[in-house]
Amino acid sequence: MNIDLKVLTGQTDENICWIENPKIGVHKEVLTSLQKLQIASQQAGFHLAICSGFRSFESQLSIWNAKASGKRSVLDSQSRPVDVSQLSLDQLMYAILRWSALPGLSRHHWGTDFDVFDLKAMPQGYQLKLTSDEFEGAGYFAPLHDWLDQNLSRFGFFRPYAEDLGGVSPERWHISYGPIAEKYQAALTLDKIRKIISNTSMMLKSQVEKELPQIYERFFTRVSKS
Questions:
Q1: How many whole angstroms separate alpha carbon 163 and alpha carbon 170?
Q2: For residue 37, which of 8, 44, 45, 214 sits 20 to 30 Å off, Cα-Cα?
Q3: 148, 114 in Cβ contact below 8 A?
Q4: Cis preceding-peptide flag for 179 (omega within 30 of 0)
Q5: Chain-centre distance of CA 18, in angstroms?
Q6: What's this model's pTM, rounded to 2 decimal places?
Q7: What is the pLDDT of residues 17-61, one digit of tens each?
Q8: Could you state, in chain order, the average pLDDT of each consecutive group of 10 residues for the chain (226 residues)?
């Protein structure tokens, strides 16, 4: 499939439309399905809000470098801060990858993937954390996501990180529009991302280039289908 590499890696927003309050980027061919999902959730008593949609390559690179340099927290699989001073460079790289995609390999580059929560259930003044305790069990946003479990597929969406497959930590808040995301994932090959990384100024680059086939397989190709 011939899809522009800049589109696949978030280096252009030509395929993106922008919705306001807050400003969120959505793939032009996903907007209608997303709006239908939001309307249905509203009719069920929720306010499905988006805290993250399209994310550019540069934005993902900034997140990556901030974590690699210690300017931003790195979390373990239980969402607890990691003492990065005790990690080797390889260990640090893999710790970052549990929660943050390698620049160029983020599904958020496509405008097909969104982090969603129930704005109606969020207490006034509460700071959203995007941790499992908010979205499971007695968490504020669990009822919305229980509803989404039964209704996402009706609108073409699924959860790529519904379970721990040894790559990205489970993210119940992350939903993806399958009809387009699956095509983009198939089009973004290892050789293509290798070329992007080789021309990128990023921290831990030598570790990334050495481990790129493993990173690609574990943290990009391993997704849930539910």
A1: 5
A2: 8
A3: no
A4: no
A5: 18
A6: 0.95
A7: 999 877 999 999 999 999 999 999 999 999 999 999 999 999 999
A8: 92 95 92 98 98 97 96 88 92 96 98 98 96 96 98 98 96 98 98 96 97 98 90
3-class SS at 54?
Answer: coil
Give the distance from CA 167 to its chain's centroid: 13
Helices vs strands, H then E, count in the chain: 9, 6
Work out the widest C-alpha separation in the chain, in whole angstroms: 50
- Give the list of residues 6+ apart from residue 39 with CB closer than 8 angstroms, or none: none
Type and span of the H or E element at 61: helix 57-68
Distance CA 181, CA 70 (A): 32
**The amino acid at 169:** S
* Cα–Cα distance measured from residue 117 to residue 107, given in angstroms and rounded to the nearest whole number: 18
**Identity of residue 139:** G
Q: Is 143 exposed, middle or buried (0-12, 13-18, 19+ CB in 10 A)?
A: middle
